[in-house]
């Protein structure tokens, strides 16, 4: 329980990030868009799932050409789960908080991990991770100490009351991915674990 509450503060690593082509600053990517350009509203109440999906789909199409960055400005951005794409930076400004929906209807079911063959808490499929990605390369999650908030209490309450039919999602899960940087961002209040990189290589 303590671990869940504790903010996972990832240290700032001052590397020559742009020089390495890695893109910790949105300026390192050729295509830079704010999430508001896809219709998102940062009022903490509007559900922005479709806006995040549109943003990642659009930037995913552009990212092969010099990379792409999605900038999340100051505000509280409520959304259901979304996936990342390659050659991509998710950049959270100071005071930006991405809030996970607490409505389980917003969390689709996904396949279990191949090496588990079932969900971790329950058999069968599992709830989506909040932020996911498979088979990605060159992904950065960074910014000026924004927050990714799983608002996980609802999940923990149901989990302890044995009211969940499926395994909870993680705050961030990356599968079969490489060249990932996570810096200068705070992960809090996950429905289960915070960060779960699996089948990934350096
Ligand atoms: C994210 O990708 C996984 C496959 O890697 C898929 O099962 C899932 O539906 C996707 N989630 C969203 C919200 O698009
Ligand atoms: C990702 O890579 C794994 C391992 O190479 C492969 O089994 C899987 O089909 C790939 N998934 C996608 C969505 O390309
Ligand atoms: C990390 O965030 C701080 C502000 O919280 C900012 O001053 C600094 O430039 C950021 N560093 C990187 C590498 O983004
Ligand atoms: C980053 O944000 C967290 C939580 O909001 C806070 O505890 C921490 O002090 C901040 N770090 C910096 C360097 O601003």
Helix content: 10-25%
- Which percent band covers the strand fraction? 25-35%
Gyration radius, in Å: 16 Å
Bound heterogens, unique: 2-acetamido-2-deoxy-beta-D-glucopyranose
CATH superfamily: Single-stranded right-handed beta-helix, Pectin lyase-like
For the biggest sheet, the summary is:
6 strands, mixed
Structural class, judged by helices and strands? Answer: mainly beta
Q: How many domains, in number, for the residues?
A: 1
Q: Mind telling me the CATH class? A: Mainly Beta
**Topology order in helix (H) and strand (E) letters:** HEEEHEEEEEEEEEEHEEEE
Tell me how many strands there are.
17
- Number of helical segments with 4 or more residues: 3
Q: In whole angstroms, how far apart are the ends?
A: 30 Å
CATH architecture: 3 Solenoid
Strand order of the largest sheet: 1-16-13-8-5-3
Q: Specify the overall morphology.
A: globular
Low-confidence blocks of residues: 1-17, 19-23
Signal peptide: 1-24
Protein name: Polygalacturonase
GO biological process, one term: carbohydrate metabolic process
GO molecular function, one term: polygalacturonase activity
């Amino acid at each position: 329980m303590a671990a869940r509450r504790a903010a996972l503060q990832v240290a700032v690593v001052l590397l020559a990030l742009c020089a390495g082509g890695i893109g910790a600053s949105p300026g390192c990517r050729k295509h830079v868009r704010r999430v508001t350009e896809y219709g998102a509203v940062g009022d903490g109440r509007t559900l922005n799932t479709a806006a995040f999906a549109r943003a990642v789909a659009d930037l995913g199409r552009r990212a092969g050409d010099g990379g792409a960055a999605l900038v999340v400005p100051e505000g509280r951005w409520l959304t259901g789960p979304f996936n990342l794409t390659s050659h991509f930076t998710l950049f959270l400004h100071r005071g930006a908080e991405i809030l996970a929906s607490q409505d389980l209807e917003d969390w689709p079911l996904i396949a279990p991990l191949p090496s588990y063959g079932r969900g971790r808490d329950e058999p069968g499929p599992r709830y989506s991770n909040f932020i996911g990605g498979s088979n990605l390369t060159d992904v950065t999650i960074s910014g000026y100490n924004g927050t990714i908030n799983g608002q996980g209490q609802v999940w923990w309450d149901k989990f302890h009351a044995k009211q969940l039919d499926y395994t909870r999602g993680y705050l961030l899960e990356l599968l079969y991915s490489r060249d990932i940087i996570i810096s200068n961002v705070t992960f809090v209040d996950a429905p289960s674990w915070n960060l779960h990189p699996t089948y990934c290589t350096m």
